[in-house]
Amino acid sequence: MALDYAVIAAYVLGMIGMGWWGMRRATSKSEYLVAGRRLGFTMYSGTMSAVVLGGASTIGGVGLGYKFGISGAWMVFAIGLGILLLSALFARRIVKLKVYTVSQMLDLRYGGNSSMISGLVMAAYTLMLTVTSTIAYSTIFNVLFGLPKSVGVIIGGGIVVLYSVLGGMWSITLTDIVQFVVKTVGILFLLLPISLATAGGFDGIQARLNDPAMFEVGNIGVSTIVTYLLIYVFGLLIGQDIWQRVFTAKSPKVATWGGITSGLYCLVYAVAGALIGLAGKALYPDIANKDEAFATIVENLLPTGVRGLVLAAALAAMMSTSSGALIACATVASNDIWRRKAKAGRDAASDVHDNRMFTLVIGVVAIAIAVALNDVVAALTVAYNILVGGLLVAIIGGLVWKRGTRLGAMVSMAVGSLTAIGFMVFVDVYANEAIYYSLGASFVTYVLVSLATPPTSSEVLANWDRRVAGDATEEELVNA
Fold this sequence. Notes:
By secondary structure, the protein is mainly alpha-helical. Helix content is 80%, strand content 0%.
């Protein structure tokens, strides 16, 4: 295991070093939160792929493949579809707005201040998204060192919080590029072919399992597939962590084609995770907890050194999503919630300092929650149910329906969020009804309240059209 330890140690030290380097570039709010809005195609597509494919996509994706076979790809496949739709339909307009948060977009579109409600919902979503990847650290450190879950979470979470606090989005972007390369090599080029070859290929897997359902695309269940598509496709369209990466693109063209490339990569990653889990089921059929399938496959299947690289790839996946969600949560907290009470006229250094403090505090809170929770897929389901049920209608409605009003948006956000939370509390976290009913309630209230209230003023709509066209003034950019 000495070589495995060396590989992991080198990776972790590299992440911290990049955090330190990024600190030198994060000298303004724009540099700290959105990397100066100047990422090119390669860096943008790499960092977008890294942020959406985290611990739930890697550990959870392999676990679903272990339990359901090929059909286990649907969760991550839906994530890829979400990135494709976002990039093809909305990325150009999002880049041109030159804002920092989804809530600021809502304020521009509807006028007034609706960001407190949307900010609270988005903060809850990004916090839980941070928690899901932080939980997953424990599986890696348990395999490497036999550490208990809480210790593994604290170590992994502490590393992410450190480099995120230091350099903000610049540190996260640099580390994401490395993480993207590491997990591409580790998961796609090493673990996938080795696990399939060891299991004897598809013929060997079929012979070992003797279960045709494991090779059926719909084995996971039609209702679950529909729920994944609703939650993750729509969730990727509106999530602050995703929009914040779109804000980093240097041009609408980069955001569109870099995002489409990232979405296609996610589809490949989805199939790879399911196949790895399927091979693991054939080789190790008695794993009690599906989320332990990934670590078990790596521990028993790979030689030393290679095992360290693949574990580093898993850490890379977790850290990418965790750090992206962490800075997204801090951005929402500082810009949409706290800023309403903050004094105007703060200089660049004060803005960066405040955002660092928010990142630190929220990182510590996320680690504490992760220590208390166990199921990464459940935590991710909670996050996306709240996000999609609460905000999807108001955000997409604002982009495509001019008659939508501020009051309609606010009521739909409140009703949708409460409906989703109610079903998860009183029925079940995994209840498909949570997303169905919350979306339905949100849509109905949005349309009815918007039609019952005066239309958005022509001045607000004219300003919105100007911003969508990319005509933000220097003063508007400074005060965003």
